[in-house]
Amino acid sequence: MTFCSKHLLGIEYLSNLEITSLLDEADRYVTLNRSNAKHSEIFAGVTQINMFFENSTRTQASFEIAGKRLGADVMNMAMQASSIKKGETLIDTALTLNAMHPDLLVVRHPHSGAVNLLAEKVNCSVINAGDGTHEHPTQALLDALTIRRAKGRLHRLSIAICGDISHSRVARSNILLLGKMGNRIRLIGPSTLMPKGIEDFGVEVFENPKEGLKDVDVVMMLRLQKERMDGGFIPSEREYYHRFGLDHEKLSFAKKDAIIMHPGPMNRGVEIDGTLADDINRSVIQEQVEMGVAVRMAIIESLIKSQRTKISKVLK
Ligand code: NCD
Protein backbone atom coordinates (compact mmCIF):
# COMPACT_ATOMS: atom_id res chain seq x y z
CA MET A 1 0.00 0.00 0.00
CA THR A 2 1.80 3.08 -1.20
CA PHE A 3 -0.80 5.81 -0.88
CA CYS A 4 -2.98 7.15 1.87
CA SER A 5 -4.84 9.87 0.00
CA LYS A 6 -7.52 9.67 -2.65
CA HIS A 7 -5.77 12.03 -5.08
CA LEU A 8 -2.28 12.93 -6.18
CA LEU A 9 -2.39 16.73 -6.18
CA GLY A 10 1.11 17.72 -5.17
CA ILE A 11 4.40 16.62 -3.65
CA GLU A 12 3.56 18.81 -0.65
CA TYR A 13 0.99 16.21 0.49
CA LEU A 14 3.30 13.16 0.21
CA SER A 15 5.37 11.65 3.01
CA ASN A 16 8.92 10.38 2.47
CA LEU A 17 7.65 6.84 2.90
CA GLU A 18 4.98 7.31 0.23
CA ILE A 19 7.59 8.72 -2.16
CA THR A 20 10.01 5.87 -1.55
CA SER A 21 7.44 3.13 -1.92
CA LEU A 22 6.03 4.70 -5.10
CA LEU A 23 9.53 4.75 -6.58
CA ASP A 24 10.10 1.12 -5.53
CA GLU A 25 6.89 0.12 -7.26
CA ALA A 26 7.85 2.16 -10.34
CA ASP A 27 11.19 0.31 -10.49
CA ARG A 28 9.23 -2.91 -10.95
CA TYR A 29 7.27 -1.34 -13.81
CA VAL A 30 10.51 -0.30 -15.52
CA THR A 31 11.42 -3.99 -15.69
CA LEU A 32 7.95 -4.91 -16.95
CA ASN A 33 8.03 -2.15 -19.59
CA ARG A 34 11.35 -3.43 -20.92
CA SER A 35 9.94 -6.94 -21.39
CA ASN A 36 7.91 -8.20 -24.34
CA ALA A 37 4.85 -8.88 -22.22
CA LYS A 38 4.43 -5.33 -20.99
CA HIS A 39 0.65 -5.37 -20.94
CA SER A 40 -1.27 -6.37 -17.87
CA GLU A 41 -5.01 -6.66 -17.29
CA ILE A 42 -5.01 -5.86 -13.57
CA PHE A 43 -7.13 -2.78 -14.05
CA ALA A 44 -9.45 -3.98 -16.81
CA GLY A 45 -12.71 -2.07 -16.48
CA VAL A 46 -11.12 0.99 -14.88
CA THR A 47 -12.00 4.21 -16.72
CA GLN A 48 -9.32 6.90 -16.94
CA ILE A 49 -10.07 10.27 -18.52
CA ASN A 50 -7.23 12.60 -19.50
CA MET A 51 -8.28 16.27 -19.49
CA PHE A 52 -5.46 18.45 -20.78
CA PHE A 53 -6.34 22.15 -20.94
CA GLU A 54 -2.76 22.95 -21.97
CA ASN A 55 -0.59 21.49 -24.70
CA SER A 56 1.37 18.41 -23.84
CA THR A 57 3.34 15.79 -25.71
CA ARG A 58 5.12 13.55 -23.25
CA THR A 59 2.93 13.86 -20.16
CA GLN A 60 -0.30 13.09 -21.97
CA ALA A 61 1.19 10.25 -24.04
CA SER A 62 2.84 8.85 -20.94
CA PHE A 63 -0.43 8.81 -18.96
CA GLU A 64 -2.25 7.22 -21.87
CA ILE A 65 0.34 4.46 -22.26
CA ALA A 66 0.53 3.92 -18.49
CA GLY A 67 -3.25 3.45 -18.19
CA LYS A 68 -3.44 1.18 -21.23
CA ARG A 69 -0.55 -1.00 -20.05
CA LEU A 70 -2.52 -1.66 -16.87
CA GLY A 71 -5.59 -2.65 -18.87
CA ALA A 72 -7.66 0.50 -18.16
CA ASP A 73 -9.98 2.14 -20.69
CA VAL A 74 -8.33 5.50 -21.39
CA MET A 75 -10.10 8.42 -22.98
CA ASN A 76 -8.33 11.61 -24.06
CA MET A 77 -10.77 14.51 -23.96
CA ALA A 78 -10.13 16.88 -26.85
CA MET A 79 -10.36 19.99 -24.69
CA GLN A 80 -9.98 22.33 -27.67
CA ALA A 81 -13.20 20.86 -29.10
CA SER A 82 -15.07 20.54 -25.78
CA SER A 83 -17.93 22.63 -24.38
CA ILE A 84 -15.35 24.71 -22.45
CA LYS A 85 -15.06 26.57 -25.75
CA LYS A 86 -18.82 27.24 -25.58
CA GLY A 87 -18.44 28.85 -22.16
CA GLU A 88 -18.94 25.85 -19.88
CA THR A 89 -16.94 26.20 -16.68
CA LEU A 90 -14.21 23.81 -15.63
CA ILE A 91 -16.37 22.59 -12.77
CA ASP A 92 -19.42 21.95 -14.97
CA THR A 93 -17.27 19.95 -17.38
CA ALA A 94 -15.84 17.97 -14.47
CA LEU A 95 -19.30 17.28 -13.03
CA THR A 96 -20.54 16.10 -16.43
CA LEU A 97 -17.65 13.68 -16.74
CA ASN A 98 -18.08 12.63 -13.11
CA ALA A 99 -21.62 11.51 -13.89
CA MET A 100 -20.15 8.93 -16.30
CA HIS A 101 -18.41 7.24 -13.36
CA PRO A 102 -14.74 7.44 -14.27
CA ASP A 103 -12.27 6.02 -11.75
CA LEU A 104 -9.50 8.45 -12.53
CA LEU A 105 -9.23 11.98 -13.93
CA VAL A 106 -5.79 13.15 -15.07
CA VAL A 107 -5.90 16.94 -15.30
CA ARG A 108 -3.55 19.62 -16.64
CA HIS A 109 -4.67 23.23 -16.35
CA PRO A 110 -3.02 26.64 -16.89
CA HIS A 111 -4.29 28.02 -13.55
CA SER A 112 -2.56 27.21 -10.25
CA GLY A 113 -5.06 25.57 -7.89
CA ALA A 114 -7.57 24.57 -10.59
CA VAL A 115 -6.84 20.85 -10.17
CA ASN A 116 -7.30 20.99 -6.37
CA LEU A 117 -10.63 22.77 -6.87
CA LEU A 118 -11.79 20.17 -9.36
CA ALA A 119 -10.78 17.32 -7.01
CA GLU A 120 -13.19 18.68 -4.40
CA LYS A 121 -16.14 18.35 -6.80
CA VAL A 122 -15.77 14.80 -8.13
CA ASN A 123 -16.04 11.31 -6.64
CA CYS A 124 -13.11 9.70 -8.42
CA SER A 125 -9.37 10.08 -7.90
CA VAL A 126 -7.67 13.06 -9.52
CA ILE A 127 -4.04 13.25 -10.63
CA ASN A 128 -2.45 16.65 -11.13
CA ALA A 129 -0.62 16.60 -14.47
CA GLY A 130 0.55 20.19 -13.95
CA ASP A 131 -1.40 23.25 -12.72
CA GLY A 132 -0.12 26.68 -13.68
CA THR A 133 3.12 27.50 -11.89
CA HIS A 134 2.05 25.48 -8.83
CA GLU A 135 2.91 21.76 -9.00
CA HIS A 136 3.74 18.93 -11.38
CA PRO A 137 4.07 16.01 -8.96
CA THR A 138 4.43 13.18 -11.49
CA GLN A 139 7.32 15.02 -13.17
CA ALA A 140 9.14 15.37 -9.83
CA LEU A 141 8.56 11.68 -9.09
CA LEU A 142 9.91 10.58 -12.47
CA ASP A 143 12.89 12.90 -12.01
CA ALA A 144 13.50 11.36 -8.59
CA LEU A 145 13.40 7.84 -10.02
CA THR A 146 15.82 8.84 -12.80
CA ILE A 147 18.23 10.35 -10.27
CA ARG A 148 17.97 7.38 -7.89
CA ARG A 149 18.73 4.90 -10.67
CA ALA A 150 21.64 6.96 -12.07
CA LYS A 151 23.22 7.86 -8.73
CA GLY A 152 22.20 4.84 -6.64
CA ARG A 153 20.58 7.03 -3.98
CA LEU A 154 18.19 9.93 -3.49
CA HIS A 155 19.75 11.69 -0.51
CA ARG A 156 22.86 13.75 0.19
CA LEU A 157 23.22 14.75 -3.45
CA SER A 158 24.01 18.24 -4.66
CA ILE A 159 21.43 19.17 -7.29
CA ALA A 160 21.33 22.33 -9.43
CA ILE A 161 18.02 23.46 -10.93
CA CYS A 162 18.74 26.05 -13.60
CA GLY A 163 16.83 28.63 -15.59
CA ASP A 164 13.29 29.94 -15.38
CA ILE A 165 12.51 29.02 -11.77
CA SER A 166 9.72 31.60 -11.36
CA HIS A 167 7.37 30.13 -13.93
CA SER A 168 8.21 26.47 -13.38
CA ARG A 169 5.92 24.01 -11.61
CA VAL A 170 8.61 21.40 -12.34
CA ALA A 171 11.08 23.38 -10.22
CA ARG A 172 8.57 23.81 -7.41
CA SER A 173 7.68 20.12 -7.18
CA ASN A 174 11.33 19.12 -7.46
CA ILE A 175 12.40 21.55 -4.72
CA LEU A 176 9.76 20.04 -2.44
CA LEU A 177 10.59 16.41 -3.24
CA LEU A 178 14.38 16.63 -3.31
CA GLY A 179 14.34 18.80 -0.19
CA LYS A 180 12.20 16.29 1.73
CA MET A 181 14.62 13.51 0.81
CA GLY A 182 17.61 15.40 2.22
CA ASN A 183 19.48 16.79 -0.79
CA ARG A 184 21.31 20.10 -1.25
CA ILE A 185 19.46 22.19 -3.78
CA ARG A 186 21.01 25.07 -5.69
CA LEU A 187 18.91 27.31 -7.89
CA ILE A 188 20.67 29.08 -10.76
CA GLY A 189 19.16 31.77 -12.96
CA PRO A 190 18.75 35.48 -13.63
CA SER A 191 17.24 37.42 -10.73
CA THR A 192 14.27 38.32 -12.98
CA LEU A 193 13.35 34.61 -13.14
CA MET A 194 13.96 33.82 -9.46
CA PRO A 195 10.92 33.96 -7.12
CA LYS A 196 11.28 36.41 -4.24
CA GLY A 197 11.86 34.73 -0.88
CA ILE A 198 12.74 31.35 -2.41
CA GLU A 199 15.66 31.01 0.06
CA ASP A 200 13.04 30.26 2.72
CA PHE A 201 12.61 26.84 1.05
CA GLY A 202 16.09 25.85 2.19
CA VAL A 203 17.78 26.33 -1.18
CA GLU A 204 20.90 28.27 -2.21
CA VAL A 205 20.53 30.82 -5.00
CA PHE A 206 23.18 31.68 -7.60
CA GLU A 207 23.21 34.08 -10.52
CA ASN A 208 26.53 32.85 -11.85
CA PRO A 209 26.23 29.30 -13.29
CA LYS A 210 29.95 28.61 -12.85
CA GLU A 211 29.62 29.14 -9.09
CA GLY A 212 26.28 27.38 -8.82
CA LEU A 213 27.35 24.30 -10.77
CA LYS A 214 30.53 23.76 -8.77
CA ASP A 215 30.76 20.08 -7.81
CA VAL A 216 27.07 19.27 -8.27
CA ASP A 217 25.93 15.68 -8.95
CA VAL A 218 22.86 16.62 -10.99
CA VAL A 219 22.24 19.47 -13.44
CA MET A 220 18.54 19.97 -14.12
CA MET A 221 17.79 22.48 -16.88
CA LEU A 222 14.39 24.14 -17.32
CA ARG A 223 12.61 25.52 -20.35
CA LEU A 224 12.07 29.27 -20.65
CA GLN A 225 8.29 29.33 -20.09
CA LYS A 226 7.56 32.14 -22.51
CA GLU A 227 3.83 31.44 -22.49
CA ARG A 228 3.78 32.48 -18.81
CA MET A 229 5.83 35.65 -19.28
CA ASP A 230 4.08 38.94 -19.80
CA GLY A 231 7.10 41.19 -20.07
CA GLY A 232 10.79 41.33 -20.85
CA PHE A 233 12.36 38.90 -18.38
CA ILE A 234 15.47 38.31 -20.49
CA PRO A 235 17.34 40.64 -22.88
CA SER A 236 17.36 38.10 -25.75
CA GLU A 237 17.54 34.32 -26.20
CA ARG A 238 21.09 34.65 -27.51
CA GLU A 239 22.19 36.56 -24.44
CA TYR A 240 20.34 34.11 -22.18
CA TYR A 241 22.12 31.14 -23.76
CA HIS A 242 25.45 32.86 -23.42
CA ARG A 243 24.93 33.57 -19.71
CA PHE A 244 22.73 30.69 -18.51
CA GLY A 245 22.48 28.01 -21.21
CA LEU A 246 24.26 24.75 -20.41
CA ASP A 247 27.34 24.35 -22.60
CA HIS A 248 30.53 22.29 -22.24
CA GLU A 249 32.38 25.07 -20.45
CA LYS A 250 29.77 25.62 -17.74
CA LEU A 251 29.25 21.88 -17.31
CA SER A 252 32.97 21.44 -16.60
CA PHE A 253 32.39 23.05 -13.18
CA ALA A 254 30.05 20.21 -12.13
CA LYS A 255 31.33 16.81 -10.96
CA LYS A 256 32.86 14.70 -13.74
CA ASP A 257 30.02 12.20 -13.50
CA ALA A 258 27.22 14.76 -13.11
CA ILE A 259 24.08 13.87 -15.03
CA ILE A 260 22.13 16.31 -17.22
CA MET A 261 18.33 16.46 -17.03
CA HIS A 262 15.56 18.41 -18.79
CA PRO A 263 11.80 17.82 -18.44
CA GLY A 264 11.17 18.70 -22.08
CA PRO A 265 10.14 20.19 -24.35
CA MET A 266 13.61 21.66 -24.75
CA ASN A 267 14.84 24.62 -26.75
CA ARG A 268 18.22 23.60 -28.10
CA GLY A 269 20.61 26.51 -28.20
CA VAL A 270 18.53 28.46 -25.67
CA GLU A 271 18.65 26.44 -22.43
CA ILE A 272 21.05 23.76 -23.52
CA ASP A 273 23.65 22.91 -26.14
CA GLY A 274 22.15 20.26 -28.45
CA THR A 275 25.23 18.00 -28.35
CA LEU A 276 25.09 17.89 -24.53
CA ALA A 277 21.40 17.01 -24.60
CA ASP A 278 22.22 14.08 -26.90
CA ASP A 279 25.38 12.93 -25.09
CA ILE A 280 24.39 9.47 -23.82
CA ASN A 281 27.26 9.51 -21.33
CA ARG A 282 25.91 12.58 -19.54
CA SER A 283 22.32 13.22 -20.51
CA VAL A 284 19.48 11.17 -18.95
CA ILE A 285 16.74 13.08 -20.79
CA GLN A 286 15.46 9.96 -22.60
CA GLU A 287 15.57 7.96 -19.34
CA GLN A 288 13.33 10.63 -17.79
CA VAL A 289 10.74 9.93 -20.48
CA GLU A 290 11.04 6.17 -19.90
CA MET A 291 10.71 6.58 -16.12
CA GLY A 292 7.63 8.73 -16.69
CA VAL A 293 5.57 5.78 -17.90
CA ALA A 294 6.70 3.54 -15.02
CA VAL A 295 6.05 6.18 -12.37
CA ARG A 296 2.58 6.92 -13.74
CA MET A 297 1.76 3.19 -13.76
CA ALA A 298 2.78 3.01 -10.09
CA ILE A 299 0.64 6.05 -9.26
CA ILE A 300 -2.44 4.73 -11.07
CA GLU A 301 -1.97 1.38 -9.33
CA SER A 302 -1.72 2.98 -5.89
CA LEU A 303 -4.77 5.19 -6.34
CA ILE A 304 -6.99 2.42 -7.71
CA LYS A 305 -5.86 -0.01 -5.01
CA SER A 306 -6.53 2.56 -2.33
CA GLN A 307 -10.05 3.17 -3.75
CA ARG A 308 -10.69 -0.58 -3.68
CA THR A 309 -9.45 -0.98 -0.12
CA LYS A 310 -11.80 1.78 0.99
CA ILE A 311 -14.77 0.19 -0.85
CA SER A 312 -14.10 -3.25 0.63
CA LYS A 313 -13.92 -1.73 4.13
CA VAL A 314 -17.33 -0.05 3.59
CA LEU A 315 -18.87 -3.32 2.34
CA LYS A 316 -17.63 -5.34 5.32
C1 NCD B 1 6.86 20.61 -18.22
C2 NCD B 1 5.50 21.21 -17.91
O1 NCD B 1 4.56 21.09 -18.68
O2 NCD B 1 5.41 21.79 -16.85
N1 NCD B 1 6.86 19.69 -19.25
C3 NCD B 1 6.52 18.40 -19.02
O3 NCD B 1 5.53 18.10 -18.39
N2 NCD B 1 7.36 17.46 -19.49
C4 NCD B 1 7.88 21.66 -18.40
C5 NCD B 1 7.73 22.63 -19.53
O4 NCD B 1 6.71 22.72 -20.18
O5 NCD B 1 8.71 23.35 -19.75
Give structural notes.
This protein has 316 residues and is an alpha/beta fold. The chain is 40% helix and 14% strand. Strands 7-6-5-8-9 form a five-stranded parallel β-sheet. A four-stranded parallel β-sheet has the order 2-1-3-4, sandwiched between helices. Helix 1 (16-34) packs across helix 5. The structure holds N-carbamoyl-L-aspartate. N-carbamoyl-L-aspartate binds at residues 58-59, 130, 136, 139, 169-170, 223, 225, 263-264.
DSSP helix fraction: 25-40%
Silhouette: globular
- Helix/sheet category: alpha/beta
Please report the distance between the alpha carbons of the first and last residues.
19 Å
Sequence-ordered SSE layout with sheet pairings:
Layout: H1 16-34, E1 47-52, H2 58-69, E2 73-77, H3 90-98, E3 104-109, H4 114-121, E4 125-131, H5 137-151, E5 158-162, H6 169-180, E6 184-188, E7 204-206, H7 209-212, E8 218-221, H8 237-244, H9 248-251, E9 259-261, H10 274-277, H11 285-315
Bound molecules: N-carbamoyl-L-aspartate.
Keywords, separated by commas or semicolons:
four-stranded parallel β-sheet, alpha/beta, 11 helices, single chain, binds N-carbamoyl-L-aspartate
